[in-house]
Specification:
heterodimer, A: Ubiquitin-like (UB roll), de novo design (two linked rop proteins), 3 domains, five-stranded mixed β-sheet, 12 strands, 42% helix, B: 165 residues, Arc Repressor Mutant, subunit A, Glutaredoxin, 2 domains, elongated, binds flavin mononucleotide, binds iron/sulfur cluster, binds FE2/S2 (inorganic) cluster
């Protein structure tokens, strides 16, 4: 059993309620932070912990917090990003649904550190029942003196508000989220200015992911240095992984980032192996935006090293032979899955979710979907593969926000590693409508030159 | 048709607006539109959007442009129950195609259509954050997960029963 810091109490009956949560030691970090620490020392602890943002980009949280501007007389805001819409990702939902008070506890400490008196949770609109759970938890916390004015008699005031989105993946991007929170369309802003200087209502704002903010609780309780001892290298602490696809045990797992990808997939403690005793063909290890890897490059790096479930190891080899930990949305594909079709559904997703502000993203995502649709339905040509490659390359890096890159990468990686499957589809327009390319050589050991 | 919130709905609107600073009531637009859509017929006719604009003291166009941006707001009439079935990668590799085909057959409608009796609308949507519990669909406020054909049958029967009684 690995270390658990967030979900250690997830199975305690009634942990969703304030009473049980508190009895199990909840809200201790608020007492410690408000009574024994000050905002600066909290930011220091978070820096020492090495915590990196759990929303996907992995930016060091302590450093992000230290950038927030503190102009005289201007309120500052902490916003919790609970938009969770990256395909394959459903970890924040689990945390909020089952241990809502852990998030609130993290939010109160973080609000104190950042000086936010009105903190917002921006939750995706479809998580309607979780909105109710959070509101209930907020009421309980308020009734017990953890929210509102003069918390613990320290004079610190903090209110938490839940704001429901309404169905738009782009609102997970932090500046689009801010626009949406202002009651507008979710069009990402051009940066600079960064939210830390001018965010919500032009005020200094920090946007952090749900899991990031929950992790503040163990960091304060155990101290940043102790937290940093868990994990390996710059992958400190624990990470929630939401595993889905063709595995025996889909679900949300908390891992310390020292386990191998192989163990994660095959051990009964985690995914429990591939469903139906089939073979592993490919995996998208960090949410739909990160590069897909064939089985052989997933389990071992291009140099034959074991690949581990952490930031560094999953990205070993760069995009040529590696991927990313991303949001922790771990999507497993078995030998019967078609890479072309899978890529098509993702291309459709990004076309649907593009806000339309930048031409490369708006037009490019539409073209990619159309071409993939053509190939999938037996009307593609070999030149289409090159055209796809060309389009994705023209989107990447040429847009206001990273959604453009996120749309380009899955297509690029699919062609990079599965080009022969695309060619097979094109060369077998009839056969490919009723059967799949299959596993082929994708799980074969990679030849590592001596 | 003119729309007016009753006292409970108005109290809820005021609670929503109070979360934002003085003068920033436009921030309540998304929550207010959810309230409006849920309070009336499950969609947002122009008159209803105008009413919300009036309540939040913003221009009608500010409401239209927002309502048309977000996929949860319906700008056309819908059935009493909307089956929003996820079709994105993780659901697709877990068998959502079969479920979608089965629902179409059972309800005799295509995606985007409503049954003649006005009870069901079928909508295909993108990832709802339930990938590990696929195939799945959202119906109203709840997620129906691990769908099988048998489960679809009983879900349809369940909702039908609520309208015939
Ligand atoms: C298109 C797009 C969608 C995103 N969706 C999410 C999301 O759903 N949840 C999230 O926490 N971060 C999301 N992000 C990342 C946020 O912009 C931001 O980096 C993150 O909330 C910062 O929090 P963290 O540092 O704690 O990870 C998204 C980014 C992009 C470009
Ligand atoms: S990259 Fe796409 S989603 Fe992002 S701002 Fe441009 S058009 Fe909008
Ligand atoms: S892909 Fe269907 S819920 Fe995520």
């Amino acid at each position: 059993m690995g270390v658990k810091l967030l979900l250690d109490k997830a199975n305690v009956p009634g942990i969703r309620t304030y009473e049980v949560y508190r009895r199990e030691g909840g809200y201790r970090s608020v007492e410690k932070a408000l009574k024994e620490m000050n905002p600066e020392s909290i930011v220091e602890e978070v820096k020492k912990s090495g915590l990196r943002g759990r929303g996907g980009a992995g930016f060091p949280t302590g450093m992000k917090w230290s950038f927030i501007a503190k102009p005289e007389g201007v309120p500052r805001h902490l916003v919790c990003n609970a938009d969770e819409s990256e395909p394959g990702t459903f970890k924040d939902r689990y945390l909020m649904e089952f241990i809502p008070h852990l998030l609130l506890e993290g939010l109160i400490v973080s609000s104190f550190a950042l000086g936010s008196h009105d903190t917002y949770i921006y939750i995706r609109g479809e998580y309607a029942w979780i909105t109710d759970i959070l509101e209930e938890a907020i009421n309980e916390a308020k009734a017990n003196g953890w929210l509102g004015k003069n918390i613990l008699g320290t004079g610190f005031e903090c209110n938490i508000h839940v704001h429901r989105g309404a169905g738009a993946y782009i609102c997970g991007e932090e500046t689009a989220l801010i626009e949406s929170l202002e009651g507008k369309r979710g069009n990402p802003r051009i940066k600079p200015p960064f939210p830390a200087i001018q965010g919500l209502w032009q005020r200094p704002t920090v946007v952090n992911n749900v899991e990031t903010l929950a992790a503040i609780v163990p960091i304060i309780n155990m101290g940043g240095e102790e937290y940093a001892k868990i994990g390996v290298g710059r992958s400190t602490g624990t990470k929630l992984i939401s595993a889905c696809g063709n595995i025996n045990k889909p679900g949300v797992y908390e891992i310390d980032m020292t386990i191998s990808v192989e163990e994660f997939i095959y051990s009964d403690e985690y995914c429990g192996g591939i469903k139906g005793g089939k073979q592993l063909k490919a995996c998208i290890p960090g949410g739909s935006s990160v590069p897909i890897l064939p089985a052989n490059l997933l389990l071992k790096t291009a140099t034959g090293e074991t690949r581990y479930m952490n930031y560094e190891s999953l990205s070993d080899g760069g995009f040529a032979t590696g991927s990313m930990l991303g949001s922790g949305g771990f999507i497993v594909l078995d030998e019967d899955q078609c890479i072309v079709k899978n890529t098509l559904t993702l291309a459709r997703f990004y076309r649907h979710e593009s806000c339309g502000q930048c031409s490369p993203c708006r037009e490019g995502t539409g073209w990619m979907e159309k071409i993939l649709h053509k190939i999938e339905h037996g009307h593609g040509t070999i030149a289409d593969i090159d055209l796809l490659w060309d389009i994705q390359r023209k989107i990447e890096g040429n847009t206001i926000c990273p959604l453009g890159d996120a749309a380009a990468w899955p297509v690029a990686a699919a062609i990079r590693h599965f080009r022969d499957e695309f060619e097979w589809h094109i060369n077998n327009p009839v056969l490919s409508q009723t059967s799949n390319f299959g596993l082929q050589h994708y799980a074969d050991p990679i030849h590592v030159p001596a | 048709m003119t729309y007016t919130f009753n006292d409970t709905q108005m109290a809820e609107l005021n609670r929503l607006v109070a979360r934002y600073p003085e003068g920033k009531q436009k921030s309540a637009l998304l929550p207010a539109l959810h309230l409006a859509q849920d309070s009336f017929d499950g969609w947002l006719p122009t008159e209803l959007m105008d009413y919300i604009a009036n309540l939040l003291k913003i221009e009608p166009i500010e409401v239209y442009e927002v309502a048309s941006f977000y996929s949860m707001f319906n700008l056309k009439p819908v059935g009493k129950f909307i089956f929003e079935v996820c079709q994105t990668g993780p659901c697709m590799i877990s068998g959502s195609d079969d479920i979608i085909a089965y629902i179409q057959e059972k309800l005799d409608i295509k995606p985007g259509e409503t049954t003649k009796d006005g009870v069901f609308t079928l909508k295909l949507v993108e990832c709802l954050g339930a990938c590990g519990y696929a195939p799945m669909m959202q119906v109203g406020k709840i997620f129906r997960e691990h769908l099988t054909k048998e489960k679809v049958d009983s879900i349809i029967a369940e909702y039908r029963a609520t309208v015939t009684n």
